[in-house]
Amino acid sequence: MNPVGVAPGQKASFLPLLIGAPALGIFAFDTLSPLHFAVAVLYAVVVLIAATYCRRRGILVTAAACAALTLLSFCLTHGLHLTGTAPIRCIMGLAAISITTFLGLKTLTAKERLKETERQRANLARFFSPHLVDHLMEIDTPLSVARCRPAAVMFVDMVGFTAYCSQMTPEAVIAMLRELLALLSAAVFAHNGTIDKFLGDGLMAVFGSPLPSPLDATNAARCALDIQQSIERWNERRARSADAPIRVGVGIHYGEVVHGDIGSDRQLELTVLGDTVNIASRVEACCRELDAAVLVTAPFIAMLHAEGSQNLAEHFTDKGHHTLRGRAEPVHLFGLERSVNLSIRVIV
């Protein structure tokens, strides 16, 4: 068990010797040597050793011990006489200890901030593309501040997950899901999307939040096509091992969303909310009914035209109006059949 004040990952067994031996050596030399110079300034080396291997408390304890040894050495050598240069040498030693302690604590604070920045960057990298992570780390406005803006919301879900996994071991199911979610995540990040949340055998992604772009709908369409093409390539590899093919449905809607955090003080989740999210989820569920690889709404198609991506929009065929679960008014849907050549993603 590490002693209090020892930095994580450091071996504690050698620290008493590493810190105590030089401190006692300096004390003995300062007390017994007839030389008249500020030997106590050498305690700065001991504090630096503590700053290298210890946490904040360890540094402070070491500095206090060095200061106490400095004063003890002065009292043993000179008593309470404050004449001559001895008090000045003592003050010089205490000043060296204080300055070194201050610099050690500042360095430790800088290291802690750097680790916190790296932790935040790693956390953001789970949900945002590398480009967005770099940009988000530079802006001052917290992501938790609620914003309302237009965005493309995408839901991706594996078709027939329960039946597919019924004959698989738990380990095989987890391995398959990890590979599937890694594939989906790579496609989202490749097209400047944000992973809002993982949904077991799928995910929810957003294009346009927290940072909008001029091609949010286009990026979402390209991502959907990229996902289907990646699934096809994955199935080709799985077929060599006699594994059953996997299908996913993709549903996309474009509209206003509210971006912010929800939850309690103990647990918060950064997410997007609104009717756009609900419609996108219902559209994805409709993929099974229409046997479509990708389903999108009329507002999404209109946004593709507005962004100048007519070539992409033309490949989605009109599926007519459909009443989605939980909605009174029918929604105009456009779809891409599973038999369509998905190499059209390179166009635009």
Helices and strands, with pairings:
Layout: H1 15-32, H2 43-53, H3 56-78, H4 86-125, H5 130-138, E1 147-158, H6 161-165, H7 170-190, E2 194-198, E3 202-207, H8 216-239, E4 248-263, E5 268-273, H9 275-290, E6 292-297, H10 298-306, H11 310-313, E7 317-322, E8 331-337
Parallel strand pairs: 4-6
Antiparallel strand pairs: 1-3, 1-4, 2-3, 4-5, 6-8, 7-8
Helix pairs in contact: 1-2, 1-3, 2-3, 2-4, 3-4, 7-8
Folded structure, characterized:
The C terminus is likely disordered. Helix 1 packs antiparallel against helix 2. The chain contains eleven helices and eight strands. It is of the alpha+beta class and 348 residues long. Helices cover 52% and strands 18% of the residues. Strand 2 and strand 3 form a beta hairpin. The protein has two domains: 111 residues, no CATH class; 203 residues, 2-Layer Sandwich (Alpha-Beta Plaits), CATH 3.30.70.1230. Strands 1, 2, 3, 4, 5, 6, 7 and 8 form an eight-stranded mixed sheet that branches.
